[in-house]
Automatic annotation (TrEMBL):
Keyword Phosphoprotein among record annotations: no
Spans traversing the lipid bilayer: 90-111
One Gene Ontology molecular-function label: acid-thiol ligase activity
Protein name in UniProt: 3-methylmercaptopropionyl-CoA ligase
Keyword annotations from UniProtKB, A to Z: Ligase, Membrane, Nucleotidyltransferase, Transferase, Transmembrane, Transmembrane helix
Catalytic activity reported: 3-(methylsulfanyl)propanoate + ATP + CoA = 3-(methylsulfanyl)propanoyl-CoA + AMP + diphosphate
Start and end residues of each AMP-binding enzyme C-terminal domain: 449-524
UniProt gene name: entE
């Protein structure tokens, strides 16, 4: 059998669907490269992106992307090869990824917060041959971590570094535009996005040029974008939300300008909003709360901000109602997923809809099912499982036969795992979710994955990881641990997790030691039941 990591990522809609999505004008046959070329030709001098260091016009972004493509190709990378991209919010993000698109290479987006264990997982799963990263950011040296992973994963050969390259390949020295660019099929996979790990490790989500470009092109008008829009990228650019809802790509598609924020802190961003006359940005709920706390005291003029999008986790109505009075802009709730479906409240919706709902789908072609536990449709207003299918929702993960069988129905609906209610007009209200993952400030964390790491600790006999409602984070990670012999310190368990090379957001916020886990007369209870009981008991004690 061939190594699954080596097979080319694919995303296949049955022909009748593909034909319909084309005929109805959703899929236009554009590619990332063709749309960037079109914008650079239409308005070469217009500013496309800035960060604290660089300000590049559309023509400059294109020229740098072409040079990057030349550099990648000169390394011997071939169309279809995967390349890990681990970059913080810097202007270089754009030429790094557009260069990959132009060369027919497939970016695999890794978060700056990811550490060795995750990088290794993505390298193996994708079969990546190279990684593009930055010399250092926020005190962390990315090339050293990439080198550690290269030593573990034979396919990973090239480390390409923007900034001080050390002994690695210098991204900044890529200067030669190739003689010819490969032909790119718009229906081919453009990149691999990572899923929030619902069960176990993160899966890879193959998105095509056709489907993804449709999702952000159609988001533009819904989010009020025009060539005058200035989008502040405050969340990590690798996330689907700031990347495409409408995010950086939707803004460039509309001919607007992207401002990269080094971090999402209120003071950092307020300063940028004033300096760059930012008109729209997107945040997760905890950050929106912090911004609302900081706004009345700030000395910066944030009056240019027209739209604040909030999504990634439930934004409670009481907080949502404060956005307009406190920040002076329109709130747009965004309920989306890297697998596809994105819902928005519309800018012109009545305040009640904006505050109370998580919006409605982008597309008339988005099909939404809300089903009870038996799989029968529920009435409007009744909570049920959300399933969806449409012109930008995937039909399968990359090389995950078992997960695909669980996550997709035979007729191609994606089981989102979310429990929602449908309201009048097709608006959705998110009620919760069926699965066991933790939504910590918008980052989705698999309980199983964290448990696996805890169990590797010699003093841990058993572990169960549970989400606990948290006023600020939405949910926090609580690890219940049955010690083996002497009880380790909570802080020591957390330090152990970090040493295993895990993203900081997966380290439990709280560690609770218990003498044993409850078992029933019939034997061990299921993990799901155990987690639910631990959460319940814990909440009772807290109350
Ligand atoms: C976004 O994408 P992911 O892939 O990180 O997470 C998707 C999950 C959803 O299935 C849902 O459980 C939760 O995040 N979620 C929300 C929400 N937005 C996302 N839950 C309640 N209210 C919301 N507004 O998080 C994402 C992707 C594109 C746009 C926006 C968010």
């Amino acid at each position: 059998m061939s190594d699954p990591a080596q097979s080319l990522p694919r995303q296949i809609w049955p022909e009748e669907f593909a034909a319909r999505y084309r005929a109805e004008g959703y899929w236009k046959g554009e590619t990332f490269g063709s749309f960037l070329r079109a914008r650079a030709a239409a308005h070469p001098e217009r500013l496309a992106v800035s960060d604290g260091v660089n300000r590049w016009s559309y023509a400059e972004v294109l020229a740098r992307s072409e040079a990057a493509a030349g550099g990648y190709m000169a390394l011997g990378l071939k169309p279809g090869d995967r390349v890990l991209v681990q970059l913080p919010n810097v202007a270089t993000f754009l030429p790094a990824v557009f260069g990959l698109f132009l060369a027919g290479l497939i970016p695999v987006y890794v978060l700056p917060a990811h550490r060795r264990t995750e990088l290794e997982h993505f390298a193996r799963r994708s079969g990546a041959k190279a990684v593009v990263t930055l010399d250092q950011f926020d005190g962390f040296a990315y090339p050293a971590m990439a080198a550690e992973v290269r030593d573990l994963v034979p396919d990973l050969q090239h480390i390409i570094v923007a900034g001080e390259a050390g002994g690695h390949i210098s991204f900044d020295s890529f200067g030669q535009k190739p003689e010819a660019f490969p032909e790119i099929d718009p229906s081919s996979v453009a990149f691999l996005q990572i899923s929030g790990g619902s069960t176990g490790l993160s899966k890879l989500i193959p998105r095509t040029h056709d489907d993804y470009i449709y999702s952000f092109a159609a988001s533009g008008p819904i989010c009020g974008l025009s060539e005058h829009s200035v989008y502040l990228c405050a969340l990590p650019a690798a996330h689907n939300f700031p990347m495409s809802s409408p995010g950086i790509f939707g803004t460039l598609y509309a001919g607007g300008r992207v401002v990269m924020a080094p971090n999402p802190a209120a003071e950092t961003c307020f300063k940028l909003i004033e300096a760059e006359r930012v008109t729209i940005t997107g945040l997760v709920p905890p950050l929106a709360l912090l911004w609302m706390e900081a706004a009345p005291k700030t000395r910066h003029d944030i009056s240019s901000l027209e739209v604040l999008q909030v999504g990634g986790a439930k934004f409670v109505a009481e907080a949502a109602a404060r956005v307009r009075p406190v920040l002076g802009c329109t709130l747009q709730q965004v309920f989306g997923m890297a697998e596809g479906l994105v819902n928005y409240t519309r800018l012109e919706d009545p305040e009640e809809i904006i505050v109370q709902t998580q919006g409605r789908p982008i597309s008339p072609a988005d099909e939404v099912l809300i089903l009870d536990d038996e799989g029968n449709p529920v009435e409007d207003g009744t909570p049920g499982h959300l399933l969806t299918r449409g012109p930008y929702t995937i039909r399968a993960y990359h090389n995950e036969p078992a997960a695909n069988a669980r996550s997709f129905t035979p007729d191609g609906f994606y089981r989102t795992g979310d429990i929602v209610k449908r309201l009048e007009g097709g608006y959705l209200s998110v009620q919760g979710r069926a699965g066991d993952h933790i939504n910590r400030a918008g980052e989705k964390i698999s309980a199983e994955e964290v448990e696996e790491h805890l169990l590797a600790h010699p003093a841990v006999f058993d572990a169960a990881v549970v989400s606990i409602p948290d006023e600020f984070l939405g949910e926090r990670i609580c690890a219940f641990i049955v010690p083996r012999g002497e009880k380790p310190k909570g802080a020591e368990v957390k330090a152990f997790m970090r040493k295993r090379g895990l993203a900081e957001f997966k380290v439990p916020d709280q560690v609770v030691f218990v003498p044993e886990f409850e078992t029933t007369a019939v034997g061990k209870v299921s993990r799901k039941v155990l987690r639910a009981r631990l959460r319940e008991e814990f909440m009772k004690k807290e109350a």
